[in-house]
From TrEMBL:
UniProt protein name: Transcriptional regulator GcvA
HTH lysR-type domain mapped to chain residues: 6-63
UniProt-listed SUPFAM superfamilies: Periplasmic binding protein-like II, Winged helix' DNA-binding domain
UniProt cross-references to CDD domains, sorted A to Z: PBP2_GcdR_TrpI_HvrB_AmpR_like
Keywords assigned: DNA-binding, Transcription, Transcription regulation
Organism phylogeny: Bacteria, Pseudomonadati, Pseudomonadota, Betaproteobacteria, Burkholderiales
Amino acid sequence: MSKRLPPLNALKVFEVAARRLNFTRAAEELHVTNAAVSHQIKLLEDFLGLDLFQRSNNVLKLTEAGERYLPRIREGFKIFQQATDTLLNDNNVLLRVGVPPSFGSKWLVPRLYRFLNRHPHIRVEIVSEVDRSYRDCDISIDFRRTQFADFRIEPFIATEVFPVCSPAIAKNMVQPADLSKQTLLHEVSAMNDPDYPSWQSWFSTLGVNDKDVRKGPLFTLALMALQAAIDGQGVALGQALLVEYDIAAGRLVRPFNVETPLRLDYYLIYAADMKENAAFQAFHQWLISEAQSR
């Protein structure tokens, strides 16, 4: 039996490609070209004398050998990471948490002190680029359910979505029809993701499908749309979890209480083997208790 080890870089590329099940996305995450990913995978397959991926009809799947290989490779990289963390900081445990910027700012960060007070030995690093952070984070919170091999996706918390605006604008509105006279503030995610609440989907829940809602400024972050609403620039769709403090402070109001089933679901995303990590367990339990106590 050969005692040689396969190239470490090829193993890392394999772990990312196996998790993404897409060479293009793996290349984006690793900041290399598609050709570089393909080259590293071929290098590893040639070294092993086995096919790790099955490619058919533009669908990428792990072979039986790849399925057996992946958990042990992931375990190895996890051990490397833990050894490095221990060496760099023996007295503190670092927990990396991925979260969308607006959800992090409006929901997670205002509550985070409660976790830190209970667990002063755990350092928390908040990472806001969630779509690029699953690999680097111990746990992520996201509204997307992107599938990754050997990652768990757990329902976390749901939030109602409804119009919000400044008190001054609210004085001129008593029913949804009054929105026709107002500027609608949009989020880019609502335009690009059919599962993300949009003005179109909000009107559809009222049975209104002929309203042109394409006009109005676009914002990359919910934070920006909400700030524009606070400043009186128009009406935004607000997630209840993100606007509760601004409503309590009187910066935003709900102009009319029209009950709709429109909501957004958030999920916890983490590698299956994180269940064995004590810091993860503590943070996971705290998140669940915060969601249940709201």
